[in-house]
Design goal:
Blueprint (H helix, E strand, L loop, with lengths): L19 E6 L4 E3 L2 E3 L17 E6 L4 H16 L3 E4 L2 H4 L4 H8 L9 H15 L9 E7 L2 H12 L6 E8 L7 H4 L5 E6 L5 H10 L5 E5 L4 E2 L3 H12 L3 E2 L5 E4 L4 E5 L6 E2 L9 E3 H6 L10 H11 L4 E3 L5 E5 L19 E6 L11
Length: about 375
């Protein structure tokens, strides 16, 4: 299995209906849909049939250790390419890497497109893909804020993310930095600088990014929520998509004005796109430098950077939306772009009273 071919780019179908597949096998060989093969033929030739399937059930009795190993490898490849395992014989699951084995054993509830299903599917995919990244690149998470009351908790949250090589950069725009950031940073490398309120927002962001030392740089917002494996999602997507810019979408949103969390349906997961959420953008330091850094604008710098990426012929990629929750505060003036909250209710297929509390979103 390798990340070049066994990745989910363009292989996670829409959720209009649940598309299922079954791999069955016995002493004479295996069968997947209309495709059959003897045990001496490679199962990998059937992988392409799963590229339009949400789920795979594996049933039957493998005749020996070699066939069990072959089926386990196929299952791992299928998961890495975006298909969720819903059923797997115990003798096969024992052949999987530990984290993937645990993820496959966890029950998958609901249907594709629903939060509970997608969250479990992502847990499997992470467990299949992350071991393929042999060397984790260094990452700098850059936070620019005018609200010191939010910075402390965000630095604390970032420091707890499940990523080995993380630097945190804080740029305070027209406000003093909290005094105990080094303490809440939990021994993570931390860079803090204060900027005058009169400086243009885009210039402040660009200067803050210039202080970062990571190979990959990501922009974070002071009031959103990020799950433990959020950075791994972006790093992996940057590697297997080969896009210039990667980021998540604002599909899971907490609307403070009505104390409701919604999950919207738009776009396709694991696909190239023309827009991602500003508080999730990840780009290499080299690519950002070649683009001339962040635009010198007072607002809408995310849109301007996206325009620069596409104008330069770069690609933009969005993985799945699990791991990020966008907060839309009641005071619209706290955002650098304003719109009525009704915009976030369009195409909402799930909603929860109050803030959705879930470990994968960093809210619990």
């Amino acid at each position: 299995m390798n990340l070049e071919s066994d990745n989910p780019v363009g292989r996670v179908p829409d959720a209009q209906r649940h598309r299922r597949a079954t791999l069955s096998f016995g002493s004479n060989g295996w069968r997947l849909g209309r495709k059959r093969g003897a045990w001496d033929s490679s199962l990998s030739t059937a992988l392409a049939q799963l590229d339009t399937k949400h789920s795979l059930a594996i049933v039957g009795d493998a005749p020996n250790v070699d066939t069990r190993t072959m089926v386990a490898k196929f299952a791992q490849q299928a998961v890495g390419r975006g298909t969720t395992i819903t059923r797997l014989p115990e003798e096969i699951s024992t052949q999987l890497p530990e984290k993937l084995r645990e993820a496959v054993r966890s029950p998958v509830q609901g249907n594709p497109g629903e939060f509970l299903w997608d969250e479990r599917a992502v847990q499997q995919r992470r467990a299949a893909l992350l071991p393929l990244i042999s060397i984790a690149p260094t990452v700098s998470a850059v936070l620019v804020s005018k609200r010191p009351e939010l910075v402390r908790s965000m630095v604390q949250r970032l420091s707890a993310l499940n990523y080995p090589h993380l630097e945190i950069v804080v740029g305070m725009h027209g406000a003093a930095a909290p005094e105990d950031l080094q303490t809440v940073g939990n021994k993570r490398p931390l860079v803090v600088k204060e900027f005058h309120a009169s400086e243009i927002f885009g210039d402040v962001v660009d200067s803050a990014f210039a202080m970062a030392s990571g190979e990959l740089l990501t922009k974070v917002d002071d009031d959103d929520f990020y799950g433990d494996d959020y950075l791994w999602d972006l790093v992996a997507a940057h590697k297997y998509s080969r896009a210039t810019l990667v980021g998540k979408t604002t599909t899971i949103v907490y609307l403070e004005a009505i104390d409701t969390t919604v999950r919207r349906v738009f776009g396709s997961p694991e696909s190239y796109t023309n827009r991602v959420a500003g508080g999730t953008m990840l780009i290499s330091a080299e690519d950002l430098q070649e683009l001339g850094g962040w635009p010198s604008l007072p607002r809408a710098i995310d849109s301007a950077l996206i325009k620069n990426v596409t104008s330069a012929g770069g690609l933009i990629y969005q993985p799945h939306d699990i791991g990020y929750l966008y907060v839309r505060q009641q005071d619209a003036s706290s955002h650098t772009w304003n719109t009525d909250i009704s915009r976030f209710l369009v195409n909402a297929n799930e909603q929860w009273v109050s803030l959705l509390r879930h470990p994968s979103l960093g809210t619990k």
